[in-house]
Design a protein that fits this description.
The protein is an alpha/beta fold and about 350 residues long. It contains ten helices and 15 strands.
Length: about 350
């Protein structure tokens, strides 16, 4: 039985991760750390056997856990992961893994020196509609993928509906997604990370160039972008990504075009159009519904525990996350240069 600890008792931990750890027969959460005392007090009954700490270093010293599950805002990920790895603790971290190439170098060096696992929560891979699309691609139903278009439409950042986002409110009364120091950016980091690892899964190759344009279409008072447009060129395919917090509706869509057919993802409906006709699947929960996805987290948990036990996919998740960090860095570089394509060189997730 692995002994784990959660760092950060925000919504994603309480509604996404904790349900996934309950009843797990291979691991248990024995401790929790959070700098906000009121959150610790509010959730003591959720983990009656766990010990509670005001900061992560004292937790590691007192408990010596096998792993940390990091559920804090992105701006804190690198420091917490680095500390844990240097202390010989495996790390499961919410996305994005880190916010910069410098932070990536820091945590990768600590991971290599410690020999511990550093794993990012890529939970959208396990959305039922995404899993079905991935299965259809892998089974060859549309042949070789040549083009992917991915679209995320939102009215505002997650949890922003309950907050005052007027200009006088600055970054929105504690909504870290609108704080550049905590979020590292706007919708590009928030939803772009998901889009990138899914596209990399579907295309099975590393991109050659990336171009990006970041805008504040509806919220000029925000210090982060509300809209991002990306184009990626792969050796045998192209991908377009459009992400916005400035839409009048909430929706996810994708089109995957192959040499033998097309897959259309329309939020909660998946449509396969091939030589033999059309087939569709209706999913109970649209991809755009909810933010915490406890049912998807169980797959992430098992993948992480499998890596800790020496699974065959060891290192693939970290390679994918590292490439996502590099791609988002280059997307920002492209935007700063007027949206021109930027070459992607170096090691990718598909490299040996």
């Amino acid at each position: 039985m692995w002994r784990g600890a959660i760092v950060g008792l925000g919504n994603v931990a309480v509604h996404g991760h904790l349900p996934g750890w309950r009843g797990c027969d291979r691991a248990e959460i024995v401790a929790v750390a959070d700098v906000v005392e009121s959150r610790l007090a509010a959730h003591r009954s959720d983990l009656p056997g766990a010990r509670f700490y005001p900061e992560v270093e004292s937790l590691i010293t007192a408990e010596g856990p096998d792993f940390l599950d990091i559920c804090t805002p992105p701006g804190t990920h690198a420091a917490i992961a680095h500390l844990a790895l240097l202390r010989g603790v495996h790390v499961l971290c919410e996305k994005p893994l880190v916010l910069s190439l410098e932070e990536l170098s820091l945590v990768r060096r600590a991971q290599a020196e410690s020999g511990r696992i550093l794993h990012t929560v890529h939970n959208w891979r396990y959305a039922p509609i995404i899993m079905q699309a991935t299965h259809l691609i892998q089974e060859g139903h549309i042949g070789k993928v040549r083009r992917v278009a991915w679209q995320v439409l939102r009215r505002q950042p997650s949890t922003a509906a309950q907050m005052d986002l007027s200009p006088a409110a600055g970054t929105g009364h504690g909504n870290w997604r609108l704080d550049p120091k905590m979020a590292g950016g706007g919708i590009l980091l928030d939803h772009g990370w998901h889009a990138l690892y899914i596209l990399l899964d579907w295309l099975g190759d590393d991109p050659q160039t990336i171009a990006a344009t970041l805008e504040t279409r509806e919220h000029p008072e925000w210090p982060v972008e509300d809209t991002a447009t990306l184009q990626l060129v792969f050796p045998d395919a192209d991908a377009d990504i459009f992400l916005t917090w400035a839409s009048s509706r909430r929706e996810n869509r994708a089109v995957i075009e192959g040499t033998l057919g097309t897959i259309r993802m329309e939020d909660g409906v998946l449509i396969l159009i091939g030589a033999s006709g059309q087939q569709s699947w209706q999913f109970g929960q649209p991809l755009s519904q909810g933010s915490f996805h406890a049912d998807w987290f169980g797959h992430v948990r098992d993948e992480f525990l499998g890596e800790m036990q020496g699974g065959a996919r060891n290192g693939r998740n970290l390679a994918m996350a590292s490439l996502c960090v590099r791609l988002l860095h280059l997307a920002n570089e492209s935007n700063s240069r007027g949206g021109i394509p930027v070459a992607i060189n170096g090691e990718g997730f598909s490299s040996p």
